[in-house]
C-alpha cells in the first residue's frame, strides 16, 4: 500500500497524485488517512483525487501530538503491509515522519522534491547544502517514509465519479505523557510569499521599522505588493510577521522578479530565494554576498536607491 | 538536571564551490565548524544548568577533528564530551541508533536537547528519531523553554500558531535559532576547557545494530547562472539602465 497523510487537505491532495503514480508502478493501491473527527465529504474528495481507500481514524484527540500520531500510523502501516508512506512536510509532518521512522527503525527522507522508482527501489531527491546540491537517495529497506513540501506535486484532475472505499476505525494508541498546554494563533495578514510573482525583500540594511514604507512603495509600483525579508527582520527584530520571512527556515520562494534591498546574502537566505527568475540586489557594501546571487545589482544606500528605483519604474510602466 | 546535547560538526557551506567538469560540490578542504543551531542548544542547556544545577554532556558522532569543535562547546560551559567515530556511509537510521545507544549508556539524564536541524542537510530527523527509538516525549522547534522541577514547558512555533507543550522528564526538545543568543566564551573559559574531559566511545561498546536504510546514490551540484551585472553607484543613468534591463527581461508588467 501507499499511505498518504497530512493535516493539510491541499497537501494530501497533492501527495495523492504522486501516490497514484507510485501505486501503478508498484502494482498496489493508495490509502489516504484522516485522523480525528469523521468527515465523509473530505473522504469523498480524497477519493475523487485518487485515493483507492480512505481510512477515517476516529479518535477523541483534540490536539496533534507526535507520540500519539506516530503510534496510530505505526499500527496502520503494520496492518496494511504498507511499502511507502507519504507525509506532508510541514513542521508537524516532519517530526511525525522522523519519530515514526525512528521507532520502526526504517528509512526516512525529509523534504523530497521528487519521488520515483529506480531499479525497482523507492528513490527521492532532496536539496542539501543550503541549496547548493541535490542529493539522490534510495531506500534499501521498507517501508519507506518520505515527507514532501507543498506545491512540489500538482493535484491530479478531480474525478467526482471515481469510486473508493471509506473505512472507519477506532484509533489505537498509547497516551503520551506530554500535554498541549496552550495554542495561540499568530496574527496573519494573509500574505503568501510562496505564491508571489514579484517580491521586494529587505534585511538588516533597514534602520527603522517605519522605513519599510520604502520597500512597500516599490512593491506597490511593481503591482507585486508582496514584501519579503531575511531572518533579522522577522525573527530578531519582529518588524514583519514570519509569513514574510524568506530563507532556509523561513519560506522558499520562486517569483519571476526578486528585489533584495539591504540583504547581505547569507547562504541561509539564498537557499530561500535561489529559484527566483530575475534577482536584483541593492547593497551599500560592494562585497556583499548577495551580488553573487544577483542578475543585476546596484552598489548604494537603499535609502537613496529605493525611492529612485520606484520613480524610474513608475515612469517606465507609465 | 542532567542534560545531553547532541551536536554536529558541519562544513562551512558558504565556502562551497561546484566542480564545473563533474557538476559535483567540492566538499574536501572546506573549513569545519559547529552546526550553528547546536550552539543555541548548548546555550539553552547552560541557562538551565545555571538555574537548576546538574551536568551538561555534549554527544557527537563525528571524525576525530570534531574534537576541536566540541572544545568550543565545552568552553561555552558544557561539562564533558563524548565523541563516537562514525561508520562509513552513515544514514539517519545508523546515526540515530548510535546516538540513542550512547544516550542509554549515559548514566541518568533528564533532558536531551538538539538543534532543530543541521545547516548542511537541514533534515531535522535526528531529534524526533531519537525520541522515537527511546520512546520519549518530544517537543520540536521550541523557541522558548521554561524548566520546572518535575516538568518542562516549551513553545513550538509552527508559523501560523504557537503551541505550548508540557512534558515530564525525561524528554527530548529540539530548539530553533530564535531561542537565545549563544555566548562567546572568554579567553579564560577557552583555556580552562582544555581540562574538561572528552571521551572516545566506539560503536562496538554500544548495544546497537547499525544498518543502513537509505543510501545516497548521487550528489549533483546546483549552479546558479546569474548575470551578475553590478552597477557601481546609484547614478540616474545606472538606475535607468537597470529598469530598461528589467523591462527587456519581461518582469515589469
Describe the structure in your own words.
The complex is a heterodimer of chains A (318) and B (253). Chain A folds into two domains: 2-170, Rossmann fold (3-Layer(aba) Sandwich), CATH 3.40.50; 193-317, 3-Layer(aba) Sandwich (Rossmann fold), CATH 3.40.50. Chain A has eight helices and 16 strands. Chain A has helices at 9-26, 40-48, 66-80, 91-104, 212-221, 231-236, 267-273, 302-317, and strands spanning 2-5, 30-36, 53-58, 84-88, 108-109, 112-118, 121-128, 133-139, 144-148, 165-170, 179-185, 198-202, 226-229, 257-261, 278-283, 296-299. In chain A, the strands form three sheets. Chain A has a seven-stranded parallel sheet, sandwiched between helices. A five-stranded parallel sheet of chain A has the order 13-12-14-15-16. Chain A has a three-stranded antiparallel sheet with strand order 6-7-8. In chain A, strand 1, helix 1 and strand 2 (30-36) form a beta-alpha-beta unit. Chain A starts with a strand and ends with a helix. Chain B has one domain: HUPs (Rossmann fold, 3-Layer(aba) Sandwich), CATH 3.40.50. Chain B contains six helices and 15 strands. In chain B, the strands form three sheets. A nine-stranded mixed sheet of chain B has the order 11-10-9-12-8-1-6-7-13, with helices on both faces. Chain B has a two-stranded antiparallel sheet with strand order 2-5. In chain B, 43% of the residues are buried. At the A-B interface, helix 3, helix 4, strand 5, strand 7 and strand 8 of A face helix 3, helix 4, strand 9, strand 10 and strand 11 of B.
Amino acid at each position: 500500500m501507499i499511505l498518504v497523510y497530512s493535516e493539510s487537505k491541499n497537501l494530501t491532495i497533492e501527495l495523492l497524485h504522486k501516490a497514484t503514480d507510485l501505486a501503478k508502478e508498484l502494482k498496489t493501491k493508495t490509502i489516504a488517512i484522516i485522523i480525528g473527527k469523521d468527515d465523509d465529504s473530505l473522504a469523498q474528495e480524497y477519493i475523487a483525487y485518487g485515493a483507492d481507500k480512505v481510512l477515517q481514524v476516529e479518535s477523541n484527540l483534540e490536539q496533534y501530538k507526535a507520540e500519539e500520531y506516530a503510534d496510530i500510523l505505526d499500527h496502520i502501516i503494520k496492518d496494511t503491509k504498507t511499502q511507502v508512506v507519504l507525509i506532508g512536510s510541514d513542521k508537524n509532518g516532519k517530526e511525525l515522519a522522523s519519530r515514526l521512522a525512528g521507532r520502526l527503525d526504517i528509512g526516512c527522507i525529509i523534504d523530497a522534491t521528487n519521488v520515483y522508482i529506480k531499479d525497482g527501489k523507492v528513490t527521492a531527491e532532496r536539496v542539501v547544502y543550503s541549496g547548493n546540491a541535490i542529493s539522490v537517495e534510495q531506500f534499501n529497506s521498507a517501508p519507506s517514509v518520505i515527507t514532501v513540501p507543498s506545491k512540489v506535486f500538482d493535484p491530479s484532475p478531480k474525478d467526482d465519479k471515481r469510486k473508493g472505499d471509506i473505512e472507519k476505525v477506532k484509533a489505537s494508541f498509547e497516551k503520551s505523557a506530554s500535554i498541549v498546554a496552550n495554542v495561540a494563533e499568530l496574527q496573519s495578514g494573509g500574505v503568501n510569499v510562496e505564491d508571489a510573482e514579484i517580491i521586494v525583500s529587505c534585511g538588516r540594511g533597514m534602520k527603522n521599522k517605519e522605513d519599510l514604507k520604502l520597500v512597500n512603495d516599490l512593491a506597490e509600483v511593481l503591482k507585486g505588493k508582496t514584501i519579503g525579508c531575511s531572518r533579522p527582520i522577522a525573527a530578531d527584530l519582529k518588524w514583519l510577521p514570519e509569513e514574510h520571512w524568506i530563507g532556509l527556515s523561513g519560506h522558499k520562494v520562486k517569483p519571476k522578479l526578486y528585489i533584495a534591498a539591504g540583504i547581505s546574502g547569507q547562504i541561509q537566505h539564498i537557499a530561500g530565494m535561489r529559484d527566483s527568475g530575475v534577482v536584483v540586489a541593492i547593497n551599500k557594501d560592494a562585497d556583499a554576498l548577495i551580488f553573487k546571487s544577483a542578475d543585476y545589482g546596484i552598489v548604494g544606500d537603499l535609502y537613496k536607491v529605493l525611492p529612485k528605483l520606484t520613480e524610474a519604474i513608475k515612469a517606465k510602466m507609465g | 538536571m542532567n542534560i545531553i546535547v547532541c551536536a554536529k560538526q558541519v562544513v562551512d557551506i558558504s565556502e562551497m564551490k561546484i566542480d564545473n567538469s563533474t557538476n559535483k560540490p567540492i566538499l574536501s578542504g572546506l573549513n569545519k565548524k559547529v552546526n550553528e543551531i547546536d550552539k543555541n542548544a548548548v546555550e539553552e542547556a547552560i541557562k538551565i544548568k545555571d538555574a537548576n544545577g546538574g551536568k551538561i554532556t555534549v554527544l557527537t558522532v563525528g571524525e576525530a577533528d570534531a574534537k576541536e569543535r566540541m572544545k568550543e562547546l565545552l568552553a561555552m560551559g558544557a561539562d564533558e564530551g563524548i565523541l563516537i567515530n562514525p561508520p562509513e556511509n552513515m544514514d539517519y537510521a545508523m546515526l540515530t541508533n548510535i546516538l540513542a545507544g550512547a544516550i542509554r549508556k549515559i548514566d541518568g539524564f533528564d533532558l536531551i536537547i538538539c538543534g532543530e536541524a543541521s545547516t548542511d542537510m537541514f533534515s531535522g530527523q535526528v531529534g524526533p528519531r531519537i525520541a522515537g527509538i527511546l520512546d520519549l516525549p518530544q517537543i520540536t522547534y521550541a523557541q522558548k523553554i521554561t524548566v520546572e522541577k518535575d516538568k518542562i514547558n516549551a513553545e513550538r512555533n509552527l508559523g501560523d500558531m504557537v503551541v505550548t507543550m508540557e512534558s515530564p522528564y525525561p524528554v527530548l526538545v529540539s530548539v530553533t535559532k530564535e531561542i537565545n543568543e549563544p555566548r562567546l566564551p572568554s579567553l579564560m573559559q577557552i583555556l580552562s576547557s582544555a581540562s574538561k574531559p572528552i571521551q572516545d566511545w566506539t560503536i562496538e561498546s554500544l548495544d546497537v545494530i547499525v544498518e543502513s536504510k537509505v543510501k545516497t546514490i548521487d550528489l549533483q551540484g546546483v549552479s546558479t547562472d546569474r548575470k551578475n551585472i553590478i552597477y557601481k553607484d546609484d547614478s540616474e543613468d545606472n538606475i535607468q539602465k537597470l529598469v530598461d534591463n528589467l523591462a527587456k527581461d519581461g518582469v515589469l508588467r
